[in-house]
Amino acid sequence: MGNGVINCCEASSSMMEEITMLSPRSMKSPHKVNIINEVCQTNDNISNESQSIVNRITNKTNLQSSIQLHIKVVNSGPIPKDTHFKITNYGLENSKRTFKDGKVYFGCKRKDRNIIINDIVIPVQNKEIQEHHRGRHFCIYYSIEKDSFCIRDLGKGFGAYVRLDSSLILKENMIINIGSSFLAFSQAVLEKIPVLNIKIMGEERGSICFEGNEYVNKHITMGRGITCDLRLDDNLLSKIHATVFYNSNGWNLVDGDMQKKSTNGTWLYLSEEIEMYTSMIFKANQAVFQVVSVTDSS
């Protein structure tokens, strides 16, 4: 169940193009509906700044914590490699955006209607694409409640993704990027049997289904190898690029073949906030970032 070759977008074999991923927002369903809105309705609560800014700044004045996040660019792309950014619980150091609200916004334009809205700009050369994707793409922000930094996509732009470095319990409507392919996961229970559906975004064919009772003691493999349960014709993929298995926690996804990680990584779309940690790698558009350190100097 679930075997077959999927012909994806034509992919370059260069490492650089692996991390300059396509955007799922550019893929249309047969009904011309934006697919990412079909599978993931992102509430852009973070970008509502009016009263929330006042409340956050007021709350932060009483904080004893002095936490700092240090990130750097790790690929050669629109932002020069090894560019470093330091973020405190008040925001990006030396930002041109004046609000000290503990948030750092990323986008392809600094301003919108002559107002500075983004702290860090990931440039786009094509002016038409830049105009289409203007606004705030994703945000890193200091969570007062958790006393930590979090990251989340804002539903615009090219999508922000984090690279998996451990096993992930799959949730409904999660989106995963491997190579130049985007996979949407959904789950159901049919006659007490858990079923995992994997939809290849941008493809008109239906979902590929796997039954949990068939995969308790064996794995669902995805990649370009001819023995994979879900085979994708994509030179950016490893032979076994990612693996899914079922246990008492539900459906789980890991990068690689359970022994060795894939060359180019398995990436989770940041539709929900994730706490940031040292060595974490995330990407958006053609820029790849790594967390150098998270320190508390209080």
Strand segment count? 24
The average pLDDT score comes to 83
Count of DSSP H/I helices: 4
Strand order of the largest sheet: 4-3-2-24-23-11-21-13-14-15-16
Q: What distance separates the N and C termini?
A: 55 Å
> How many strands, which pairing sense, and closed or not: the largest β-sheet?
11 strands, antiparallel
Query: Strand-residue fraction?
Result: 35-45%
Shape: globular
Structural class: mainly beta
N-to-C series of helices and strands: EHHHEEEEEEEHEEEEEEEEEEEEEEEE
Describe the structure concisely.
Helices cover 9% and strands 38% of the residues. It has four helices and 24 strands. A hairpin with a 7-residue loop joins strand 15 (193-200) and strand 16 (208-211).
Topology of helices and strands:
Elements: E1 5-7, H1 15-19, H2 35-39, H3 50-60, E2 67-73, E3 84-88, E4 91-92, E5 103-107, E6 111-112, E7 115-116, E8 120-121, H4 127-132, E9 138-143, E10 148-153, E11 160-163, E12 168-169, E13 174-178, E14 181-190, E15 193-200, E16 208-211, E17 220-223, E18 230-233, E19 242-247, E20 250-255, E21 266-269, E22 274-275, E23 281-284, E24 287-296
Parallel strand pairs: 1-18, 5-8, 17-18
Antiparallel strand pairs: 2-3, 2-24, 3-4, 5-9, 6-7, 9-10, 10-22, 11-21, 11-23, 12-20, 13-14, 13-21, 14-15, 15-16, 17-19, 19-20, 23-24
